[in-house]
Amino acid sequence: MTEPLDPAMFDGCSDIDLPIRFRNKWMGKILLCLEDGRRRYSELQIPLKGITPKVLAESLRALERDGMITRIAYPGMPPRVEYELTELGRSLREPREVWCKWVDAHVHELLRARMEAEGDLRDLNAS
């Protein structure tokens, strides 16, 4: 049995849209939540504060379709479903770690560039 996910595991993360991401801002976080083993849908909701049930379900379906995760359904009432990384999904661990280090090293530059671009857009709108 895997340890419960920490509800605060993403609290220190910036919510800015990063320049490189999986289809949406949640997919990388979902993959991270599954690194230690199988998880139920309700377990994934705990650290993914702000994700709607619809977006979580869509993201899980997309990750399954792309071969990153498997969906394991167990019969019963109510039915139980768990999600787990595939080998393909696990192969993203090293690139993700490199990407996270890059973001940590350059987050201030990214934010400064965005603020400058937004300032330019405001100047254009004022004309």
UniProtKB/TrEMBL annotation:
This is Transcriptional regulator. The keyword DNA-binding applies. It comes from the Bacteria. Keywords: DNA-binding, Transcription, Transcription regulation. InterPro entries: HTH_HxlR, WH-like_DNA-bd_sf, WH_DNA-bd_sf. Gene3D superfamilies: Winged helix-like DNA-binding domain superfamily/Winged helix DNA-binding domain (1.10.10.10). GO terms for molecular function: DNA binding. Residues 13-111 form the HTH hxlR-type domain. It comes from Actinomadura rayongensis.
